[in-house]
Amino acid sequence: MGKSKRGKAIKGIVNWRGTCPVCNRPRVKLVWQKGPGKDAIKICKACYGNINRK
Description:
The chain has one domain (14-52). By secondary structure, it is α+β, with helices and mostly antiparallel strands. The protein has helices at residues 8-11, 45-52, and strands at 17-18, 28-29, 32-34, 41-43. The chain has 2 helices and 4 strands; from the N terminus they run αββββα. A hairpin with a 6-residue loop joins strand 3 and strand 4. The strands form 2 sheets. It has a two-stranded antiparallel sheet with strand order 1-2. Strands 3-4 form a two-stranded antiparallel ribbon.
């Protein structure tokens, strides 16, 4: 059974779904950040995992 509050915090963010600028995957969640501060770009979970795997 689905939960009514699942994803509520993510869906409150503007432009939370789109094309990842790193891997060019369309229609993915862009919630994770690459880079510090205001210069950070939003990337997908797969690219964030690949960057932080090292």
